[in-house]
Batch of 3 targets.
Target 1
Amino acid sequence: MSDAPVVTAEDLVGVVGDLWRSVSPDPDAEDAPVPADWHPRGARVLRSSIGIEGSWDGDLVVTSAPGAAERWARAMLAIPDEEPVTETDALDVLAEVANVIGGAVKAHCAAGGRLGLPDVGVDESDAGPPPEDVLLVGVPMTWPDAPLGDADAVFTLALVHR
């Protein structure tokens, strides 16, 4: 295993906040995602992962409850509230979220390395956080206006060793 990158949860939260503010319908609003609890085990999640190779090899994995994926898709694709968001739209957007955040991680810790192509899918039963022996950094997030404990508003970022 190569040297692990020095990426913190705060680094990931910062990148997510910057990305959200760049696509938010109201960029001045204080609605950037904030830390939360992990998805409940067994919850259905949409997933995107992207490989990072260089001085360190691993994956950035983004998992999202359907409601959180819909919120990202509405913002990034400018889908009005009265129009439905398809699962395909949500998965495409999660692939782009993984690509942007993975690019920031690569620039931070694997300069000269490579970023793979996003892989997406739906997991009918989430297993919770990755095992500690592979998890480098994990950040579950939600929006400050989500009802307390709303599991459908949660998405997570996990940087894992390969």
Target 2
Amino acid sequence: MTFEPGEIAEVVDLYASNPAYWRAAGEHDPEHIDAAKVEADLRAEAAAEGGEVLLGRDEEGRLVGIVCLLARHPVDGLPWIGLLMVSGNSRRTGLGRKLVALLEQRYRAEGRHGLRLAVLENNPDALAFWRSLGWHEIDRRTDTAHSRPCIVMHKPLA
């Protein structure tokens, strides 16, 4: 991600296409996604040691997904997916599955043995999505940033 104003505007539009997620997460007002807050949040993700923000585009160059990654969690040493979101118009098209498959392939190629993420307990659709891809629950705890109840999930890669 380059953090150019046009790119931030695209991410704001992508976020706005997922109001149910933002109602569950509580990080953004789903009726008014603030561009400055989006940029600040994504810059913080990218600035974290091992942090990375990736954008997914379709054949016409339109933004269809975003992924925030952490290369090595400070506690368990595994890579983590901090956020995977596809455009509301792209939900249930297989795009999310493709993005996850690419991430799993990337970390397998790096010799990583597993991948983790946390799903908000109040987001049953996301939980069902990850379970359908073979991820399993390993813990329940609150997230460190916002103290929300989460389900920690793991996918072995070896």
Target 3
Amino acid sequence: MGDLLLVRHGETEWSVSGQHTSFTDLPLTQHGEEQAKSLAPLLSQRTYALALTSPLGRAIRTAELAGIPSLEVEPDLHEWNYGAYEGVTTVEIHRTRPHWDLWLHGVPPGPDGHPRESPAEVGDRADRVLARVDAALANRSGDVILVAHAHFLRVLTARRLGLPPAEGRLFQLSTGTVSRLSTEHGRPVVAEWNTRP
């Protein structure tokens, strides 16, 4: 059985500034493009049973620059919908809600078409993606690779390990990195985290 590889997209202006970025489709910075290209040697020696990317441009561009083949867009890999906190930093939120925590409190509704998501709702999406992952790992040879976003991949990791979605808070994830979830004695484990060349 293969492994599950998680790739967080390369740096954007808002990942540098700490602004919450879900539906705002920012391009990679020059450094973000370099991060994505640098991942190719880590990924090129593997065979993929399934390669999925978020529909957002920053993830698709990262996958392209990293040389990931046969990529499919998976809408459920979209970043957490931050609602009214789109483009807002945690520091700014704490000015009016000093004890706010995304993992515990979620976000208020945003503009039309971007209502918000709770940790449980993001967890439901992660579970759907993991069902696709499991089917591919069971029926095809090779690994599965997902290219997506920090908070979503953190929730997905928690769910893969049998934890509630909010326990994604335990897995800090940097831009332009590869992480690997594997198994040991039939149990899912974190085999590598935040790997860079």
